[in-house]
Design a protein that fits this description.
heterodimer; A: mainly alpha; 6 helices; about 80% helix; B: about 230 residues; mainly alpha
Chain lengths: ~110, ~230
């Protein structure tokens, strides 16, 4: 399990390093994810060396969001002041994104 | 009573509340009982009743949040497993992703203006579909309120996870790849976690959606807003 941590955190640290070196405006975690994919593809890292920890993390992704959702209570005031535009626009736009992405993907595959 | 603000107690409470929420959703199968939403409501109510502030809660909470970054890195594994599928349909993926990104930004900006949001709030909403660090960064460059963006991103994630599958059912989005992709595109890692509940394959395309939309949003938002300003 420790080696699995070493690989996951190693990729994250590499992501942090790239962000620090280049000043690129992307999160280190997303860069780390792409690095992990690349290392697996190049067979530098083997699937069984990361699979157990990554399964655990990925299956419980939702749990790690609970504190952020709790922190929403800090913003109740701002949200309350303009709740209709904030929540209305976000909800409508989220539904549109789902529909447009899904439809265009299905359409393109048929062509 | 002071004991109730103990870090380990609050951590234990969070684990317990989430486990119970998850169990409740699995038993009942009711979408609105989203475990993230339900846990947050229960914990917020608890904090309000006991007069504990969020900062105190977050002394423990940050140890949970800490795992968010490694968990996003771990999405590289399902992504790797789907690499051959992704290569086979590079064009559909890129085009639908680009469309989703552009529609997401334009629609949220226009609807928010229509409903009377102030300029500062509009700028804070533009990047609402993508993962928090990217969204906050985009808001900062646009001159919005990053902390409001962080809050909205969470709301969008909960909303997308809650309604996603129903919206896709009604609009006949049936292919697993399109479903996963849409969820990740519209509702970042929270949508991805919902997709991951269904299967690894859904989750892999959701993480692809969240990644591509993150990159597109970071690159395109300022330009798209200029174009909107020029037209409207």
């Amino acid at each position: 399990m420790i080696i699995q941590c070493a690989i996951i955190f190693g990729c994250l640290a590499l992501g942090e390093l790239l962000v620090w070196l280049t000043g690129i405006k992307l999160p280190s975690s997303i860069i780390g994810m792409l690095i992990l994919t690349l290392l697996l593809k190049l067979k530098i890292v083997k699937l069984r060396q990361v699979e157990r920890l990554s399964n655990f993390l990925v299956k419980n992704l939702g749990f790690f969001f609970v504190p952020a959702a709790v922190s929403l209570m800090l913003y109740f005031d701002i949200i309350k002041a303009q709740w209709l535009p904030i929540l209305g626009a976000s909800a409508i736009s989220t539904i549109l994104v789902i529909i447009v992405t899904g439809w265009i993907h299905q359409l393109m595959r048929r062509i | 009573m002071e004991y109730l603000s103990n870090t380990y107690f609050l951590l234990a409470l969070t684990f317990l509340v989430y486990s119970l929420s998850k169990m409740l959703q699995m038993r009942t199968g009711i979408a609105i009982l989203n475990p993230i939403l339900l846990s947050a409501i229960i914990i917020i109510t608890f904090l309000e009743l006991t007069d504990i502030d969020v900062a105190t809660y977050n002394e423990g909470g940050r140890y949970i949040e800490f795992w968010l970054k490694p968990a996003v890195v771990a999405l590289g594994v399902p992504l790797y497993k789907q690499l051959s599928n992704i290569k086979k349909q590079m064009m559909p993926l890129l085009v639908s992703e680009l469309a989703g990104c552009v529609v997401g930004i334009i629609s949220v900006v226009l609807v928010a203006r229509l409903l009377g949001a102030t300029q500062e709030v509009v700028m804070s909403l533009a990047a609402k579909s993508v993962t928090t660090p990217i969204a906050m960064e985009v808001t900062r460059t646009l001159g919005g309120i990053p902390s409001l963006t962080a809050a909205v991103v969470v709301c969008v994630g909960i909303f997308g996870g809650l309604t996603g599958f129903r919206v896709m059912k009604v609009t006949h989005i049936g292919s697993p790849i399109a479903q996963g992709l849409s969820l990740g595109t519209a509702a970042h890692a929270m949508g991805t976690s919902r997709a991951m509940d269904v299967s690894d394959k859904y989750g892999a395309f959701a993480s692809l959606g969240l990644t591509l939309n993150g990159v597109f949003t970071a690159l395109l938002t300022p330009t798209i807003l200029e174009i909107i300003d020029a037209i409207f």
